[in-house]
Amino acid sequence: MNAPVPPIAPETDAPVMRTTCPYCGVGCGVLARPDGAGGTSVAGDPDHPANFGRLCSKGSALGETLGLATRLLHPMARGGDGRMARVEWDTAIGQIAQAFGQTIERHGPDAVAFYLSGQLLTEDYYAANKLAKGFLGTANVDTNSRLCMASSVAGHRRAFGSDTVPGVYADLDEADLVVLVGSNAAWCHPILFRRLEAARAGRGTKLVVIDPRRTATGDEADLFLPVNPGKDTVLFAGLLAWLADHEALDHAYIDAHTSGFAQALASARAMAPDIEQIARETGIPTADLVEFYTLFTTHERAVTCYSQGVNQSAQGTDKVNAILNVHLATGRIGRPGMGPFSLTGQPNAMGGREVGGLANQLAAHMTFTPADIDRVRRFWRAPRMAAREGLKAVEMFEAVAAGRIKALWIMGTNPAVSLPQAASAARALGSLDFLVVSENVATNDTVSCRPHLVLPALAWGEKDGTVTNSERRISRQRAFLPAPGEARADWWAMAQVGRRLGFDEAFAWRSAADVFREHAALSGFENDGSRDFDLGGLASLDDAAFDLLAPVQWPVRSEGDTADKRFFANGRFFTPDRRARFVAPMAARLATEVGTDVPFILNTGRIRDQWHTMTRTGLSPRLGAHLPVPFVEIHPSDAAQLGAEDGALVALQSAHGSAVLEARLSAGQKRGALFAPIHWSNATSSNARINDLVAAVTDPVSGQPESKAMPVRAAVLPVRFRGFILSRAAVADLPALWWAKVAVEGGEGYLIATDQEPDEWRHHAAAILGTRDYAEYVDAPGGMYRAAAFDDAGALVGAVFLSPGGARASWDGLKARLAARTLSSTGRRHLLSGRGDDRAAASGPLVCACFAVSTSQIDAALAAEPGADVQRLGQMLRAGTNCGSCVPELRKLIQRRAPADLATVGVLA
Ligand SMILES: Nc1nc2c(c(=O)[nH]1)N[C@H]1C(S)=C(S)[C@@H](COP(=O)(O)OP(=O)(O)OC[C@H]3O[C@@H](n4cnc5c(=O)[nH]c(N)nc54)[C@H](O)[C@@H]3O)O[C@H]1N2
Ligand SMILES: Nc1nc2c(c(=O)[nH]1)N[C@H]1C(S)=C(S)[C@@H](COP(=O)(O)OP(=O)(O)OC[C@H]3O[C@@H](n4cnc5c(=O)[nH]c(N)nc54)[C@H](O)[C@@H]3O)O[C@H]1N2
Ligand code: SF4
Ligand SMILES: [Mo]
């Protein structure tokens, strides 16, 4: 158990635990205080150097996601009848050891594999790699980071000889120019973005955003460059040539510390011969190109942050190197306020890279060279070292489908949703001889793929260990809740399997601290500065020191190492000749081109208040209120051509699958481009799993899939009725044509579409609302159906509402009623009339998730005070004053109302 952390709120007796947010790679410190009755309050840790007390909407809502209702609490095994039944942990461990052991005996070590996640703790990740690469003899260990950071890893290794993120967050405070490439940081790294906004307010930092669509982040930019999908390489090749032509190169740095410059410049010139050609290819107006190039030329303190718009593409590694090239050519790397900066997505994307979680890496940032293999073998005293790289995620699932991989252990990821060609991936899982899934939740699309065994893993608040954020800072995740049911740490389960296979000594860890010390020791083993990753100074922490470990950035080469944590200021890299390498960019082409039958290009990504496949954020009513349904963003002119009004259902179809999504008209889209979120799965919607459409095409260097440019066609899906269902309990087997599930206060909500007549819905409603008393209103000719059920106290417990037409009806009034738990008799009477409680009914979409402030409240405030700015809105409604994630949207609402010259607003402090 953890030693109690020094008291943080001395005025109360409640134990407060310092821990780390389990969502994005910003890695914010969290103070968690369980109330002893199943609830937990959370707040930002004012002393954590990633967030200094702030949390975004997702972090703030963590307390709402800790319930046990959806959790997997016991190991379950599939019996002969196909049903899952409880088994003892001991039996489960025996089954895995036997299945993996026998498969290796019969088919060799490469017939088994592990598919892991950047949401595992470093200790879990370390255990998996040691087991597979040292003791089972296979490097078939890959992770969802392949879908996330692999191109950055590959780009770093090509340029630096190591997978090193050179900079630190403080560089954003000290920069004069920040360029965000393929990053919607306002939504995906919100607290880091707020830090950047604060720096802009203080120092006037210029912000350039490069993205094919205008996002909440793009809205905040001084200069927004709407690059054509995939054309970042051309844009940065053009910048390299421009720097050369405008005498902005650092020749001394290039000569002393790099190689390959002349060739890279020649290739860049060939790719981007003149500004008109660059404008044509990138779709960026010439004047804006010149402005960007000039800004970069004249601002030495420049940081270029990049994320999935760069990584997730068929030429992602070249995009990364095109960015690294311009920083190397100007010597702007490793010094305060300058450098390239890969923003990592998951809370422990970096930790996974540190332990060698990718199939082409070995532990502690070593690779599959004979010397490294031998070093790791000696350290582990490994009987069966993997001798070569293993299969990368997409190849791994191809090998599963082809029957070459026969036993697979999935841990902390939901590949049936997140892999490209998700339906094929799910089918492949069903064909395995042995599939084990370690999960927090009892059901999701992967758990539905008929695993032989599912294992209950500890979740956030229960697990204990370390994670590393985007700036290489290691923070503790500490347990503040007891392990529920029979849930166990992932590292523990793997260590048990290792021991069952006969490797007692190698897997004798008693705690996360034991695993961490071994990991730290390996990083320092025969290192002497030859490898970037070094935690040698933490290798002998005792248990108490591990429990109290304060956030610390690597490298920590010796105890108390306080050297500057930036890399490469000294110009010494980790290549054999210690010089950085320029990489000549290759022609930038999309993997698959649009055509007449597939005229749209589908881009995919994230929304502000949901996390990936929604197994956790999907439980929070507050987070569900911002963007409740799966949608597709479409340019108004394209929508007009399709005949799609805002809110209509649109069917997308690709060569691989289809989805039905609600149209959101947005002038921020390019013509011919669509954007859809990745979050919905078959568990949360009838037909919105976006990766069913996305082809499994990968970058040739990194193996990362192209997730952001899939050719599709689109058509309006005519439906006769739209409506919703509200229910205290989840509803199984919805009889609707289309549905999406939304967490609502007091129960579950479903937004639905149907072609069935009101009369048919009378039967469905009876089944959904059960035997309880309910009132009905049927207007068959008018196409209206409404039913509402009440409990003995008269409170609303369920409702089914349908109305004719293709647009979604507002459900805010009814939602408020379900939450209320009591209802006046007038309220009940009004309910079926659809009039509802006016205040609640008029609330409209939620903008500020922290204080539940809706669009209509904001509109009302702006009507009352037309000159109100963001700060004033904060005073009036509290909107935007907590996490600030909604500030860009507030600004937009203000701009929409205000004449252009009134639209300037201050930045929140
Ligand atoms: N709210 C929220 N935050 C998250 C997550 C979440 O699920 N929800 N997930 C976390 C994880 S794991 C990750 S990896 C990060 C991802 O963080 P981001 O990378 O910021 O998020 P995405 O929405 O995937 O994609 C970023 C942008 O790339 C743009 N893009 C698409 N194609 C191109 C292109 O060719 N060039 C350029 N320049 N841009 C392009 C997209 O339009 C999109 O706006 O977010 C993390 N934070
Ligand atoms: N088209 C398209 N596809 C994408 C992306 C995209 O932008 N576009 N983005 C890609 C990226 S960057 C990412 S990171 C992936 C994310 O995709 P996934 O990793 O598949 O998404 P999650 O929902 O985070 O899945 C994590 C699962 O692990 C469980 N879990 C959480 N913590 C633990 C734990 O400690 N132990 C165990 N055993 N289980 C745990 C959760 O309940 C959940 O089911 O999606 C990728 N796929
Ligand atoms: S920015 Fe938000 S999601 Fe990311 S670590 Fe901080 S609180 Fe968590
Ligand atoms: Mo990610």
UniProtKB/TrEMBL annotation:
Residues 14-70 form the 4Fe-4S Mo/W bis-MGD-type domain. InterPro entries: Asp_de-COase-like_dom_sf (IPR009010), BFD-like_2Fe2S-bd_dom (IPR007419), BFD-like_2Fe2S-bd_dom_sf (IPR041854), CT_Nitrate-R-NapA-like (IPR041957), MoPterin_dinucl-bd_dom (IPR006657), Mopterin_OxRdtase (IPR006656), Mopterin_OxRdtase_4Fe-4S_dom (IPR006963), Prok_molybdopt-oxidoreductase (IPR050123). One of its GO terms (biological process) is nitrate assimilation. CDD domains: MopB_CT_Nitrate-R-NapA-like, MopB_Nitrate-R-NapA-like. Pfam families: Fer2_BFD, Molybdop_Fe4S4, Molybdopterin, Molydop_binding. Coiled coil: none annotated. Keywords: 4Fe-4S, Iron, Iron-sulfur, Metal-binding, Molybdenum, Nitrate assimilation, Oxidoreductase. The keyword Transport does not apply. One of its GO terms (molecular function) is 4 iron, 4 sulfur cluster binding. Its cofactor is Mo-bis(molybdopterin guanine dinucleotide); [4Fe-4S] cluster. GO terms for cellular component: membrane; oxidoreductase complex. Belongs to the prokaryotic molybdopterin-containing oxidoreductase family. NasA/NapA/NarB subfamily. This is Assimilatory nitrate reductase (NADH) alpha subunit apoprotein. It comes from Ancylobacter rudongensis. The lineage of its organism: Bacteria, Pseudomonadati, Pseudomonadota, Alphaproteobacteria, Hyphomicrobiales.
